[in-house]
Amino acid sequence: MTRPSADLPLYVINLPASADRRASVQRQAAALGIELTLWEAVNGSVQHPLFAKVDEKRRLACKGRPFRAGEIGCWASHYLLWQQCVDSGRPMIVFEDDITIDPRFLDVLRDLPSLPDSVGYFRLHAADRPSSPWVQFGDFVLHRYWRSPLCAFGYYLAPSAAEKFLRHAERWVLPVDDYMDLAWLHGVECLGLKPGVVRSGDLFASVIQAGRKTKPGVGVLGWLSRESYRARLSVRWFVHNLMSRLRWRAPSSNG
Questions:
Q1: Which residues have C-beta within 8 Å of that of residue 18, sequence separation ≥ 6?
Q2: Could you tell me if 27 and 97 are in contact, meaning their C-beta atoms sit under 8 angstroms apart?
Q3: Buried b / exposed e along 191-219 (16+ C-beta atoms within 10 A)
Q4: Lowest CB count within 10 Å: 85, 161, 196, 240, which one?
Q5: Of the candidates 134, 131, 158, 155, which has an alpha carbon nearest to the alpha carbon of residue 145?
Q6: pTM: predicted TM-score of the whole model, two decimal places
Q7: pLDDT tens readout for residues 18-28
Q8: Are 3 and 30 in contact (CB under 8 A)?
Q9: How many CB atoms sit inside 10 A of residue 146's CB?
């Protein structure tokens, strides 16, 4: 695996029209003395070749409603960054633009060179979900989540994990952050910092939720299909968690 270095790129996904978000995250970066690279987000309301990956039929069966434009744009934006990670052969940090960055993020950057080679991905935010300490690097401990931590405010990504994400992302059914949690599918363990060093900003309305209307009724068959999918997903989580717990070990460090 390529090792993290001082010139680790820090990408921020941002729509050109979201000037207030862009200004906010740039102010934070300047205060911390870090340099961010803006990554132009895909506008979900404008046709894009990647939208062909949306499995509309399965999406309706599993979730009971189609993707919103913001969700599809979010998917494509992260997908393109995964491709960038693989093509560059270098690890990266990916941020969404509606975040607050804790000053301790600088300590994460400092300690990244001691990250074990086995870790190719972890979230930078902490979720109020069950987890267990998994592995240590520097002064930080990564937790393994036992349920989906939701959201993708910020994360570390190495080419090895990005390649796995891409390999299994031929059909888009779940939101991208939920897909990233499916360790049994793509083989990338669901890890995150606790406490986190990134959190959701409170000043901005969600672009994904923008324009959202009341959910349409899905009917009895639609409800049964959706609940069946949720049950199958819960079973997959249970089995994966059981196998992971059997392999569980106390936090360790390679340095």
A1: 41, 97, 207
A2: no
A3: bbbbebbbbebeeeeebbeeeeeeeeeee
A4: 240
A5: 131
A6: 0.85
A7: 999 999 999 99
A8: no
A9: 17
Q: How far apart are CA 93 and CA 9, in angstroms?
A: 6
d(CA 137, CA 253): 6
User: Bridge partners of 132?
Assistant: 144
CA-to-CA separations, 92 to 22, 43, 89, 164, in angstroms, rounded? 19, 22, 10, 15
Report the alpha-carbon distance of residue 82 to residue 117 in Å, rounded: 18
Instruction: Name the residue among 17, 192, 201 with its Cα closest to residue 101.
Output: 201
CA dihedral 129, 152, 199, 211 (to 10 degrees): -110
Q: In what order do the strands lie in the sheet with 131-137?
A: 37-40, 10-14, 92-96, 154-157, 121-123, 191-193, 140-145, 131-137
Considering Cα of 96, then 102, then 103, then 105, what sign does the dihedral take?
A: negative
The neighbouring-strand residues paired with 39 are 13
DSSP state of 125: S
Measured distance CA(173)–CA(179) in Å, rounded = 8
What phi and psi values does residue 4 have, to the nearest 5 degrees?
-60, 150
- Strands 140-145 and 131-137, how do they pair? antiparallel
Q: Find tokens 């969600």 and name the residue.
A: 206
Residue whose tokens read 């299909």: 225
